[in-house]
Amino acid sequence: MCRQALPLRLIRQSLLVFLVMPGVGCDDPAPPAPDLAVRDAWVRSAAVPEGMTAPVNSAAYLTIENRGDVPDRLVGVSFDGAKRVELHESFVNEQGIASMRPVDFVEVPPGGEARLEPGGLHVMLMGLVGPLSVGDSVLTVLQFEVTGRVSVIAVVRQL
Ligand SMILES: [Cu+2]
């Protein structure tokens, strides 16, 4: 085993070790990196309420797997069909009422995955510009701290 999961702050140090001690027992010089795969991406359908021109909001859900050596973070999402997009988590407040709040990022651990699903972490789509109908496909762009931008097609489904 020569590839190890390393915290991001240690990557530079480990590269330095490779440079200073060339040929120290490793046939695979690839630096540690995240290796992300996104699956099960979907968006909750949203109809236009009577008397309005567009639905109020919706949410997107997906699973991000990290087959790499180091963590990555989902730090933002772009979606042209909404005026505002935020990463949210659901929680139950002190009065026992289900609520939600923004989070700055979603951690995707090496060898693990992050699940954004109803009742938990989700991508909040606020101020939709039009309806989201079951069976439609929509483009979202995920922004990761290390990996950068990843385009994902999400299917519209009923909750
Ligand atoms: Cu939300």
Unreliable residue runs:
1-6, 8-23
What is the alpha-carbon Rg in Å? Answer: 19 Å
Order of helices and strands: HEEEEEEEEEE
The CATH architecture name of the largest domain reads Sandwich
The CATH superfamily of the largest domain turns out to be PCu(A)C copper chaperone
Characterize the largest beta sheet: strand count, sense, and whether it forms a barrel.
10 strands, mixed
User: End-to-end span in angstroms?
Assistant: 44 Å
Strands, count: 10
- Structural class, from helix and strand content? mainly beta
Write structural notes for this entry.
This protein is mainly beta and 159 residues long. It folds into two domains: 1-32, no CATH class; 33-157, PCu(A)C copper chaperone (Immunoglobulin-like, Sandwich). It is built from one helix and ten strands, in the order H-E-E-E-E-E-E-E-E-E-E. Strands 1, 2, 3, 4, 5, 6, 7, 8, 9 and 10 form a ten-stranded mixed β-sheet that branches. It starts with 10 loop residues before the first helix and ends with a strand. The structure holds copper (II) ion (CU). Copper (II) ion binds at residues 59, 88, 100, 122, 124.
